[in-house]
Description:
Layout: H1 3-37, H2 42-57, E1 62-67, E2 73-80, E3 95-97, H3 101-109, E4 113-115, E5 133-141, E6 144-153, H4 161-212, H5 216-240, H6 244-250, E7 254-259, E8 267-274, E9 277-285, H7 289-308, H8 315-331, E10 340-349, E11 352-358, E12 362-366, E13 369-373, E14 380-381, E15 392-395, E16 401-405, E17 413-414, E18 419-420, H9 423-432, H10 438-453, E19 462-468
Helix pairs in contact: 1-2, 1-4, 2-4, 5-7, 7-8
Amino acid sequence: MPIFNLMGAKTSNNDINSLRTNAHYLEVINMFASELLKTRTIDEVVWTVAKHAIAKLGFIDCVVYLLDDDNEFLSQRAAHGPKNPIDLDIKNPIKLKIGQGIVGNVVLTGVPEIVPDTSICERYVIDDTAGMSEISVPIISEGKVLGVIDSEHPDKNFYTQDDLRILTTIASMTSFKLVQARVQQELLQHRDHLENLVEIQTQELRSAIDQLQYSNFEKEDLLNEITDSITYAKNIQTAILPSKKIVKKLLRESFIYYKPKDIVAGDFYWLQERNDKVLFAVADCTGHGVPGAMVSVVCNNALNRSVREYGLTEPGKILDKTREIVKEEFEKSGKEVNDGMDIALCSLKGNQLKYAGALIPVWIIRDGEIIEIKADRQPIGKHGHQKSYTTHTFNMQEGDSVYIFSDGFVDQFGGEKGKKFKIQPFRDLLLRIQENNMYDQKTIIYKTFEDWKGTLEQIDDICVIGVRV
């Protein structure tokens, strides 16, 4: 046989061996990924690494270490080989300080390491039996080391760069699932804590109810306490609303008609000044009374953070960030929360008006006509078809008026037939009072509502803002 044929045969055999190795690695990775998807807890994740990754690679020894909560020690959490004689137990588990041994050093550097001969490595720490070569790969998430996958072998120079590559891949897959498992664990703990608090408070409430059955005096005391608590909540809610002084300073020709249904409200108005822009909004949160007020505090805080912490001034981007913050806050409970808010948010700089809305439009009145800019059909909160909010720009003219409002006014029952006020009469009302100044407009709107409502109960919170350029 010619020499080139022999060389070709040799090269072909190497290629075949390489393909077989890669095929085996791919099979192990696929199997590991399938098993990893089934895991829910941290223990399940690390034992899946040991049993369904390392064992399948043919390594005779492996230990998975995880950092403790204080980031001081590495604990052995799963193993394959001599350290794991039976089931999911670890024989004589040890702890290593950060920086101790080869494993501890890998945590410090965040760099995987192959030690071909441990007998000449001063950092080597003997666990159960001495190995002659060692490979140690960090498990990293967002630059932070969570743990280490470590394997030893009785032969020198056993581990190769191929071994390093596949262990690095396994470590990367493991890091994602570990973070997910830790978040799930924290959510469950938070849920259990909340459920425990609810149980305690429920027991206390039942006890209070039992006591109230024997004493009208105690009932009256409790009612006063509840009223005082709600009144205190009103003081807190009032404190987060812009003061009359601030409103007058930033919106010279304007009015705010704000009428909660109960002591506290789900509606609120909001005002900020940033980069010579005046931002103002009307928001209608889920519910009214105490539940609505609790949601309004979360939403008000989210608006403030979007502007103050993230430096946003464009209405659409403010609403995008506000929605993100509100959803994050509600998701902390570990339970599905569908609360949120509708909002109209305006930015005014000179004669340029920018607007973005979640289910609440803006009306601009010019020359006796109403120009309506419609809102995006999605609330601030959880929504099935989420998209970015649209910022609309409108050049104002002297004498133009801007109105944003919640639905409490138009939905109010009243009049001779006890029907809703509705949107068209409200449009007619605003057009009719354009010759009046903003103070008189508020007075007319207030009187119109009271006359319409009559003796009927107010059904919802009301918030109307009018601004004249």
